[in-house]
Design a protein that fits this description.
With 353 residues, this protein is α+β, with helices and mostly antiparallel strands. It has 8 helices and 18 strands. It folds into 2 domains: 160 residues, 2-Layer Sandwich (D-amino Acid Aminotransferase, Chain A, domain 1), CATH 3.30.470.10; 166 residues, D-amino Acid Aminotransferase, subunit A, domain 2 (D-amino Acid Aminotransferase, Chain A, domain 2), CATH 3.20.10.10. The strands form 2 sheets. Strands 1, 2, 3, 4, 5, 6, 7, 8 and 18 form a 9-stranded mixed beta sheet that branches. Strands 9, 10, 11, 12, 13, 14, 15, 16 and 17 form a 9-stranded mixed beta sheet that branches. A hairpin with a 2-residue loop joins β12 and β13. α2 crosses α3. The two termini are 20 Å apart. The relative contact order is 0.14. The protein binds pyridoxal-5'-phosphate. The site of pyridoxal-5'-phosphate has 14 residues, from α6 and β15.
Length: 353
């Protein structure tokens, strides 16, 4: 399929890198492609970033058929632009499609479209330390119809925007509230899909935790409220004795690409990594015995987010004295080192634009 390109006649002024935050500035262009049952995916085009209008009856507004991805483009020290494991994002997008009855994409074509979009907006990839171009591919149901069924038409859209360094003054461990009242997802539901609905389901708990002074919530399984699932919008790891433990993918946990990369890196360093069920009780007991050395979240935005404090049933414990652990720091340095091509890329994770 050909990708038509319509360049903007009105390029925007790029923000000063010092003012970059997250998710509030968008590049000049976007990719968009239509789906209808008659034609399949068609009319792939890159057009100026801007509003799209929809009838108020389109199904995404009513029944929430919406999925997304999140990845970054990095500026290397040689001025090149690279992506980190983008094939994994389109694989996962297709798995999300399946979960929400959305027609799948050709993954190679989606990657080709992304590379072309980044090529066109290459100048939007910032070059200051720790900054990047955030990429948000998403699919929404666009059939104007009231009535519950999978939509007959969709839009696949990719927008991008420069984002600031996640950590400006060094990595600060976060305070986490272990959520025993609300649940994010249950096995058999949408938890392993990157569905917008999962985020709608997380807001209430997040808001209540924030009021109590916590940055994020740690989700427990929806049935027994016993086993750890993930933290906010990140997967989670615990270093207990000489074992690194992360919850196994049971069906209600989002399979993070940072999670997968951390497991592969840790194993390549000869460390014991277990993907298994881990209860919150086990974590607190390990802490009492002095075996809980580190805890951290993993995700594209922060890469590694160390957990400095956990609060469960009114009981707070501090982890590694509220400081970043040795392994968390090593993972952060190695992952960002590979992403910005400062380190060799033994797994072939980096894709050049
Ligand atoms: C996207 C996401 C993650 C992290 O996935 P990465 O691929 O590592 O960015 C973790 N949990 C949830 C709920 C997510 O939506």
């Amino acid at each position: 399929m050909e990708i038509k390109v319509q360049l903007t006649s009105n390029p925007k002024t790029k923000p000063n890198v010092k003012d970059l935050r997250f998710g509030n500035v968008f590049s000049d262009h976007m990719f968009i492609m239509d789906y209808t049952t008659e034609k399949g995916w068609h009319d792939a085009r890159i057009v100026p970033y801007g509003s799209i209008s929809y009838e108020p009856s389109v199904m995404v507004f009513h029944y929430g058929q919406a999925i997304f991805e999140g990845l970054k483009a990095y500026r290397t020290k040689d001025g090149e632009v690279v992506l980190f494991r983008p094939q994994e994002n389109f694989k996962r997008l297709n798995r999300s499609c399946e979960a929400l009855c959305i027609p799948k994409l050709d993954e190679d074509f989606a990657l080709k479209a992304l590379l072309k979009l980044i090529e066109i907006d290459k100048d939007w990839v910032p070059d200051a330390e720790g900054t990047s171009l955030y990429i948000r591919p998403f699919i929404i149901a666009t059939e104007p119809h009231i009535g519950v069924h999978p939509s007959n038409s969709y839009h696949f859209i990719i927008i991008t925007g420069p984002v600031g360094a996640y950590y400006k003054e060094g990595i600060n461990p976060v305070k986490i509230y272990v959520e025993s009242k609300y649940v994010r997802a249950v096995v058999g539901g949408l938890g392993e899909a990157k569905a917008s609905a999962n985020y709608a389901a997380s807001l209430k708990a997040q808001e209540e935790a924030a009021k109590k002074g916590y940055t994020q919530v740690l989700w427990l399984d929806g049935v027994e409220r016993k086993y750890i699932e993930e933290v906010g919008t990140m997967n989670v790891f615990f270093v207990i004795g000489d074992e690194v433990v992360t919850p196994m993918l049971t069906g209600s946990i989002l399979p993070g690409i940072t999670r997968k990369s951390c497991i592969e890196l840790l194993r390549s360093w000869g460390l014991k990594v277990s993907e298994r069920k881990i209860s919150i009780e086990e974590v607190f007991e390990a802490n009492e015995k002095g075996l809980l050395k580190e805890a951290f979240g993993t995700g594209t935005a922060a890469v590694i987010s160390p957990i400095g404090e956990l609060c469960w049933n009114e009981k707070s414990v501090s982890i590694n004295n509220g400081r970043i652990g040795e392994l968390s720091q090593k993972l952060y340095d190695n992952l960002t080192g590979i992403q910005y091509t400062k380190l060799p890329d033994p797994f072939n994770w980096v894709v050049r634009v």
